Amino acid sequence: MWTITKHHKIGLGALALGLLFVIVIAYAYFRGTLAIRGMSVSLSNIKNGMTYSEPTLPLSGTTERVNTLYINGRQVLLSPDGSFADVIAPLSGYNVLSVSASNRWGKTKVLTYRFMYTPHIESVLENTEGSGVLKS
C-alpha cells in the first residue's frame, strides 16, 4: 500500500506549482503572439489598377483579429468567423476604395485600392431611358 509522507506532499505541491507556472507562461506566449502578429484583412475580388464595368462592385473578404471594419467610411458587419461582404456603386472613371480595420487595442490598419470604372454602353443607355436622352 502506498503511503504519502510529509516529504512527498512537499514534492507534489512543488510539482503542481511548476505545472501551473508552465500553463500561465504558455497562455501568455499564445496571447502575446496574437497581439504581435497584428490584424489581417484580405479582399478577394478587387485589385489595384483593375478596370471594372458592372454598375455595382461586390466586395467580400476575411479578417483576423479585427473588431471593426469600415469600407469608404461606412461600417461593415463582420461574421463571427471574420468574413464580410458588402456592395459598392463606383463612379464612372477613377475610384479609390479605402478599407480601415481596427483591433480591440485601438490599432488601425488602412488598405487603399485604386481602380477604374468604365460602364458598359448598354447599362448607360438603360439608365437614361425615359430621361429625354436620345438613343440611336
Keywords:
136 residues, alpha+beta, Immunoglobulin-like, 2 domains, 5-stranded mixed sheet, 3-stranded antiparallel sheet, 2 helices, 35% strand, rod-shaped
Brief characterization of the structure:
By secondary structure, the chain is α+β, with helices and mostly antiparallel strands.
CATH architecture of the largest domain: Sandwich
What is the total tally of β strands?
8
Task: Outline the low-pLDDT stretches.
Answer: none
Based on helices, strands and strand pairing, what is the structural class? alpha+beta
Question: What percent of residues are in strands?
Answer: 25-35%
Q: Tell me the distance between the termini.
A: 103 Å
Give me the strand/helix succession: HEEEEEEEEH
Q: On the 0-100 scale, what is the average pLDDT?
A: 82
Number of domains: 2
Helical content band:
25-40%
Radius of gyration: 28 Å
As for the CATH topology of the largest domain, it is Immunoglobulin-like
Largest sheet: 5 strands, mixed
How are the strands of the biggest sheet laid out side by side?
2-8-7-4-5
